Amino acid sequence: MGNPTDAEDALSRAMLKAWEKVRDCTYDIKNFKAWLTKLTYNLCADIHRERNRSAVGVDSLDTIAIENQTELISQEETPVRAA
């Protein structure tokens, strides 16, 4: 998962999900260890997908200003100048 904190978070989320699911489908589970392993694996994959989805590259403001050929702030528009 990357670091121990992420691994602990994934494990706790897996245990909570397993606790919810095991009440509903106890008769359907033939191999509990395999079921729990697959549930944990799928949860970790979901966590990675969530992080990749939310990770968006952000350009610096200076780069954006240079590309648009504008200044980020005009000296006339500052509160000090207005006063």
What brief labels describe this structure?
about 80 residues, mainly alpha, 4 helices, elongated
What is the secondary structure topology, with strand pairs?
Layout: H1 4-24, H2 32-54, H3 61-68, H4 79-82
Helix pairs in contact: 1-2
Overview of this protein structure:
By secondary structure, the protein is mainly α. It has one domain (4-82). The protein is 67% helix and 0% strand. Helix 1 packs across helix 2. It is elongated, with a radius of gyration of 25 Å.
Enumerate how many helices there are, as a single number: 4
Cα Rg:
25 Å
Q: Tell me, rounded to a whole number, the average pLDDT.
A: 77
The fraction of residues in strands falls at: under 5%
The unreliable regions are none
Total domain units: 1
What is the H/E order?
HHHH
Brief summary of the model shown:
The chain has one domain (4-82).
